[in-house]
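haha ok so turns out i had the wrong file open the whole time. this is the CORRECT one, sorry everyone. sequence first:
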Amino acid sequence: MPTSLELAATDHETPIADVHSGLHSAAGGLRAEHRGRSTDPVIKVQDLAWLEFVKPDLVRAEAFARDFGFAVADRTPDALYLRGTWSRTPCLVIRRGAQSRFNGITFQASEGTDLDRLARALGTEVRPFLDGRIVQTTDPSGVPVRVVHGLTVLPALPEQAPLPLNFGEEYTRFNRGQRPAKEPARVQRLGHVVLETPIFQKALNWYVEVLGMIVSDFLFLDDLRDRGPTMAFIRCDRGSVPADHHTLAMHLGPGVGYVHSAYQVSDLDSVAMGGEYLKAQGYNRVWGIGRHIQGSQIFDYWRDPDKLMFEHFADGDMFDCDVEPGWAPMSASGLAQWGPPATKDFLGSNLSPHLVRKVIGGLRGENEIDPAVLRSLMKAMSS
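then structure:
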């Protein structure tokens, strides 16, 4: 890859598949509401490649990035390219612009012919891109989406090795103490991105039917279950090759776009000590440390100087294509197995002029938001 990257602007014994596919008793007939996959998608994307943002201050953006645990792959006067330790493309591209904002998702295609098939289906074109090719489009919510293939990857960087742990009488560490360094948690890779949309069903179907993604878990509003799911955790379909429980998560809401993105680090100590380092630098923790239910990740959430949310995670679930969607009611308490209660900041329920504008805009639009949905969402996020 060139040194200056010109990325485009723009129960125990029961098998897990049996447990996971079991319909939550409270869900009634919801299973028939959405199968969570397409029988004939246009293509099947294989992973996330990178996310793109626009920010007015690249110096400040780089400072947070280094403190969070990214490495700088390249920088120009108008762009910053951030990477993890694994041999991949940069996982974050930040461009200089007037206002801080999210500028879309880039996925990795499995083969070059996928791009041709995708372009034909979308009525667009495949363009040369660095040493590969790219298709650019938008999802139904208006979020920029790119699919790439053929790009040269960066060489791997030194890892932050997981600490040796003792389990009962199984001693892997003796005659020495456990002293993790208080230093940035070294990001390994981009794991997932979470989006909000007022047209959840339409957007979900687009990612399933066009990009061939499959649903790992659905959440629904318990008092509006007849309306179907209102959140989905979606993974890439790699057949028998395991993929992250979710590469993309989407939920119904009055706003459009970015909620947070998540980056894998080596282990719990990396999550914890990375958080200690961020706290010492004066950054604001949003929620953590805990372990999720859907996806099982050990998590810790932070805000960057522009108030965008970023997550460190470790030990996430990996599913192959045989696991059918799980169903559960949406609730704040249902977001974690252990850890502190989810904060208002994380849930997006802090009263602010921005939230008021989002709600009013959602009620005015032609979408899935109405007063009953808003009431049910507020009830779920306070439960």
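Residues 16-150+187-381 form a domain with the 2,3-Dihydroxybiphenyl 1,2-Dioxygenase; domain 1 fold (CATH 3.10.180.10).
again sry for the mixup
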